[in-house]
Every structure is written in structure tokens, then in C-alpha cells.
UniProtKB/TrEMBL annotation, chain A:
The lineage of its organism: Bacteria, Pseudomonadati, Pseudomonadota, Alphaproteobacteria, Rhodospirillales. The gene is livK. This is Amino acid ABC transporter substrate-binding protein. Coiled coil: none annotated. Pfam families: Peripla_BP_6. It comes from Terasakiella brassicae. InterPro entries: Leu-bd, Peripla_BP_I. Belongs to the leucine-binding protein family. Residues 33-365 form the Leucine-binding protein domain. It comes from the Bacteria.
Automatic annotation (TrEMBL), chain B:
The chain crosses the membrane at residues 21-39, 45-64, 71-91, 97-117, 124-145, 173-192, 222-242, 254-281, 302-324. It is found in: Cell membrane. GO terms for molecular function: branched-chain amino acid transmembrane transporter activity. Keywords: Cell membrane, Membrane, Transmembrane, Transmembrane helix. It holds the Pfam family BPD_transp_2. This is Branched-chain amino acid ABC transporter permease. Its main location: membrane. One of its GO terms (cellular component) is plasma membrane. It is a multi-pass membrane protein.
Amino acid sequence: MSIFHKIAKRATAVALGAGLMVGAAHAADKKDIVLGGSIPLTGVFAFAGVGIHAGIQDAVKITNDNGGIEGHKLVYVPEDTAYKVDASVAAFNKITSQHDVNLYYGDSTAFSKTIAPELDRSGKMLMAGASFASELDDPKKYPNIFIPGPSYTDMVGILLEYIAKEKPGAKVGFVHSDTEFGRDPVEGAKASAKALGLDMNLVISTAPGGVDVSTEVLKMRRARPDFVIFHGYVLAPIPEFITQARSMGLKTKFMGTFWSMDNSMVGKMGDVADGFMGVMPYNYYYTTADNAPMLDKIRSMRNTYQSNAYMQGFFSTMMMAEAARNTVKAGKELNGANLKAGLQAIKDFDTGGVIGVPVSVKGNSVPVGRVYQYDAAKKQMVAASDWINLD
Amino acid sequence: MRIGTAKENYLHDAALFDTNVQRAWMVALAAALLVLPFISGQYIGYLVCLVLINIVSTTGLNILTGFTGLVSLGQAAFMGVGAYTVAILEINAGTPFLLNLLIAGGAASLVGVVVGLPSLRVKGLYLAIATIAASVILHFVFANWTSVTGGVSGLTMPPASIFGFELVQPNQVYWIIMPITVVMLFGAANLFRTRIGRAFIAIRDRDISAEVLGIRLLRYKLLSFAISSFYAGVAGGLWAYFFRVITPESFPLMMSIFFLAAIIVGGMGSILGGILGAVFMTMVPEILKMMVGVLSPIWPDAVAVMSPVRIIVFGGLIIFFLIFEPDGLAEIWRNIRRFFHLWPFRT
């Protein structure tokens, strides 16, 4: 080997070594992207919080297994809140004082509203959460928050659009809990019904935790609606309503919104579950479709049924990661405004089957969903409509 | 061993701090309170503010329940009255925060007097139920008087400001919360050095005997409700400045139970008991969370697995302290002090 070759070989080795070192240093330079979470792992909302936590964990793991967000590792830092606003804010303060947080998951509407001024002030992060409150679907008022799915008004809008298609001019009843959650879509529902030519001839408000619904069912019998939409409940008093309505011979079809649409929860209604319908923004854990690699991945990671809360946590994380990816790709700093721009740049995003159609962000939400119906023989919610995208 | 502290007259006996050591500790505490926001982060600052607000409300309930013997489960609703009052004034009138807090206390006081009327006929569990009923009515008003309270969506208010400087962060709002808490604690402590305070205690111990002694039950029971609600109203006002979003769901019945638990765990009929109870009930869940957090590096899912265990431990701790010392944390504190006062002799 000539001296020239020896020199060239050594120079190549040195260059390669230097290149590797620079590469490693560059990788080490890539700061972690931190996703903080005020998660209700205990308390009245724990039934959902545990699922949300698992969904976020899995989405984070899949993201990191696939190289992170443009090389940045996504780190999830959760804290339990017991679904109390003061504990949620404490968790937020704790996490943000210990980490440079870019993304956040909040556990309630009240928390979102409480922390919104702080998000605006710090301008550091983008927040999603368990809340689908219509009030949050306002990019001007809540510039650093987004809803990982349709707002409650949009959910009811999707149901009404389905009803208008199935039975034009149908009589529709709306039963809601007398809470902020329950009252949220009432006015929007009335307006949508009117626009779609539906007759919303019955609006019933029930006391939170109320179980005696006989008076309300009598009102229902007098109004004889073709469809009744429940909102603001998880389970009770929906089964009581349906049982009593059936015993009075009403042929009404009953529907729910996201938080009363978990497959195992509907199954707990017993006999009256059969035929129960509702809107779901995501596919179910067990949905089989040709082009749904993410659902296959989820099933390979967890071999037992995962709730709709799991899907919500998973989808929220996917969207936040995608927003961060768009921001990094654009070479911008990871702050609230840029992350929101990255989120709003999401157009026709393929979720791998978590949602059955490509999704885009509109305003502060993703107004897409599908109507499902419970099949007691299969013990599953099955699709009753195609995906409905509200414009 | 503590010596040379013989109480030679009634004033000495009724003094809030009877030794130089106590006074020195109080100076140290005051210095710590002044330095705290400069050395603590936002998280600690937040917790300190939350503890202070809870101390004000717990002290108010202690005046009513611990010192006067009238059980109330309406403290959260009274806080709600104060919080809404402050928010409405801040949004619509823009009046100074100190005036807003005083009006909030006054408004809650008036509501408290009305709610306290049944106390003239009933007491114990019956009165507790009456206050729950009042709390439900107030909650209904918060949720349905939409033009004033914003209905179920509630109110979002601007921050408090001093000379145009907005107090947004916990370490800034602290400068409102801390001095007011200190003033209200001294007010409560001094209340029981007056005829009014002693009348409350007499009513608690035996209301018929108190009446025989010339204490007018109507006046003093309602006064106790008024003072207690004033504390709750101010605490609610501070809460409003701290969180700046008030909804009907901000002040649930569970919050009233929280305050009742705080005075029971801390020690009923003792100002120190109210303070210790509020600190215990607010901080122990956070400390348990921190302990779970320590496990996270070696056990990544410790937060999810240990959270329910944490709640059980918190409940267990409350039961343990109540069995170990039924008179509350204040009595444990007094026992510790007594030990050092008499050392090397045994109590």
C-alpha cells in the first residue's frame, strides 16, 4: 500500500470518526419535547383518566420507537389530579417548574379555562385535553388550546345530520344534565335542528346525579320524539330513561355523545343497550379495517379492550406530536404560537385508522365523527353511518 | 425546662404569646413569610397560596363549629358568594381589590346570617342538613342567575393589581393572600380574648346555661354565622383572585366537607388546630404525590399504579391521627411543646 493510500485511509477514518462524533453530538443536542399531563387517575373521572393515561403512554412509545419527533424524544410527564381544578393547577405548576414543557394535556373544561391565561402569558405550549367544550372551540379566545375531536356542539350536529338524512323532518328530543357539561350544546343543537328542518320538540334538563326520571319520561311520552339525544352523562340515568320509555311502548331511538359511547359502558346498560346509538370521533379498539395499521399496533401492544378514553388520549398525543413535527420541520422554535400554527397546518392527516378518514384541524377542533349502534348479539358498537365531516 | 413564666394577672393569662421564645419564633416565621416568594418556585408558591386561602376558610369554620358548636356544611357556598362578589366587582366596577374583598366578606356575612337562622331552632346534624340545603340553593343561584354569574360557564376576571402592576403569578398574588391571612388569623385569635368570643364558647359548652348567664343566643349565634361567613367570603375572594375563573362547580359540597375534616383533624376550638388542619389536608396529598414521583425514575408507571394507593394512605393517615389523638394535630403540637417545657422531667 502506497503512502498516499495510507494517508487517504487514515484521513477517511478520522473524517468518519469526526462525522460520527458530530452526529452523536447533534443527536444529543436535540432537546426532548416534553408532554405534561394533569391526568385524573383517581376521583370521579378516573374511569376515563386511566384509559387516557394508557393512550398517551402508547402514543408516546410508538412515536419514540419511530425515531421521535424529527429526532427529538417525546417525554411524557403525568401527575394525578383526582379531577379537581386546584390539584390540576398544582400539577401544572409542578410539571412546568421542573420541565421545559411544550405540550400539555388537561383533564377538564374548568382546568382549561383556568389555565388558559397562563398559557397565553407564558406562550410556551400547546394544550389539548379531555374537554370537548364548545366554548374552547374559539381560536381567538383560546389560542393555545385545541379539542382532539369535534366539540360537543359538533357531536350533536353530526347526530342531527345523520337523523336528517335517515328521517327528514323527524321529531328530536334532547335530554341533558343540568351541568356546564350537559348544557354545553343545547343552543347549538336547537339552531342545527332548525337549519336541518328537524323538529326539536323536547328539551329536558335533569339534576346532576338524579335517578328518578319518571316525570321526564312522561314528558317524553307526550312529545313522542323519533330520536332522543342524551348529553352530559356517562351512564345513569340513560338506562332508566330507555327502560321506562320502552315499557310505555315508545319506539324512539336513543343516542349519546362521546363520554356515553364506550363499548363496555354501553354493554352495562343490559337489555336496553341493544340499538343504542351515538357519535364517536374515533374508531373502536376492535375495529378492523384494511388501512388501519395504528389499530393493529395498539392491539399488539394491549391485547384487551381499550376504552374510548384510551383512543382520545392516543389521538390527542398523535395530533400534538404532529403539530410539533410540523414546527420542527419548519425550523421554528417550539412555542405556543408556532405549535398552534403547526397544528393548524395539519391537513388530511392519516391517523393510521384511529379515525377512519384523513383529518384536518378546523378552528380549535377536528369536527369529524361517525354514528355507531350497539349490537347486543355481537356485544359491540357497530358503524351505522359513514364518517361525517362537518364543514 | 421553661421557668419564670408565672402568670401574675389576667392580661398575662390571656396573652397570645407568653414567652420571649414564642415571640422569637413568630419573628422567624414572619421573616420566612417575607422571604418565601423570593426563594420558592411557582409550584411551592402556588401550594403556599392555596394553603393560606384554606387556612382563612378553615379558621372561619372553626369559629362557627369549633368555638360556637354550630355545625355547618355551607362553607364552600359562602366562599362562592365571596368569589362571585369579587369577580363581579372586578369585572364591572374595577374597584380596588381590598375594597372588593371587604364587600365579598360582607356579602357572604349577610348570606351567612340568613342561613344561620335555623340555628336558633336546630343544632347538630339537623343544622348541618339545613346548611347543605342552603348550599344547594346558592349553587342553583350561581348556575341560573346567568345575567350576573355567567351561568354554568361562570366568570373569568382580570387579575388584581397594585398601582397598575398586575398580580398574575402565585408568587405575586401571595402579597395579597399572605398579609390578609395573617390579619385574619390575628383577628380570630383576638376574638376569643373578647366578650364575644367567650360568649361563643359558652354557647358551645351549653347554650341553655349561656342564656341563663345573660348571653343572647339569637344575637351571638347569628354573629358567629356572620363572622364565619365573612372569613369564607374573604377566602372565596382570595380564591377568585388566585384562579380568576369562577364557575358554579368551583365550590362543591365536597369542599365544605374538606374544611370540616380540616378542623376535626387539626383540632376543633383551636386557632392553631384550624391552621394545622388546613395545612394537613392541603399538603399531605401533595407530599404523597411527591413520594410517588420519587419512584418514577425506577418505576416509570408509578404515577398510575400508586395513585389509588396514595388516596388510601391519605384516608388512613386521617384515621390514624384521629385515633392517635382525637383532639387533633393541635393537641399533638401542645404535647410536643409540653415535653420540651418540662424536660428533663416527664409530663
